[in-house]
Amino acid sequence: MSENIAKVVMTVNLTIGIITCGRPDRISKCLNSISKYTDLAHSILVVDSKITSENLGLYQGFPNLTSITFDSPISPAAARAIVAQNISTPYVLFLDDDIQIVQGTVSKMVEYLDKNLEVDIVGGAWLERGKYRELGQFFNFGTIGDRPIIYKSFLSLNEAINLNLSSVRVDGVQATFLARKKIFDRVQFDPRYGFYFELFDFFLQCKQQNIYLKALPDVIFEHNPTTYRIPTLRQTSDSKSDRQKFIDKWGIYPIGSLGGRLVKLSEPKKFRLFHFFK
């Protein structure tokens, strides 16, 4: 008697790219949250710019994980660029090691891109020590005298909820975002930045290239910041030097931001809206 056994091959459309640098306690919690709360088939790519035996042992416990390692710290932009250059799936979710996945978050993001083919990137809010970081960023242009300037303003999670928004088009999101692989034919993370201005630069490239970003109020990640065990480019980079790199590249002067702070969720407010929907 012969028996045909059909093998079920699960299609993997998602890579989760994590950047880390000498924080095994953080990356461990991040990876465990992915295992616990991500139902979609996925592969994991870790770029670890300060590898330790503790980290290597940890990675061996995840059969779907590939690591690219370095002996000394590299910049976040360089690490993200390595992720972008080494994926083969249609979608990539970028995470820092101090982020933890919340139940349903990843599937909501993938489902949104599946249904909205015109959108290229989606992001959400960060829950940090009981408060929420901003949901989305807007880039504002102007002049001071003859000098062209740019500054950020922010949409808070409170404002999005009070307006009953299910999504909103923005110019930038948090460092935790889901992107289509194909956008990296047009934009890339610039490894010349040390620690500062790299995502400002990346999202400004996206705006220039008409890459469509949406922020989703029902997408939340837990952010658990902690100090690094070793000096990284966060400690050794010069924000003034990175700002000058931004100016030299774009010919525009970043002067700061309006808003953007940790806030608790508040009671819904009533807004006077000029467009009404049944």
From TrEMBL:
What region holds the Glycosyltransferase 2-like domain?
15-137
Q: Pfam families per the record? A: Glycos_transf_2
Record-annotated membrane-spanning stretches: none
Tell me the domain of life: Bacteria
Q: Indicate what this protein is called per its UniProt record.
A: Glycosyltransferase 2-like domain-containing protein
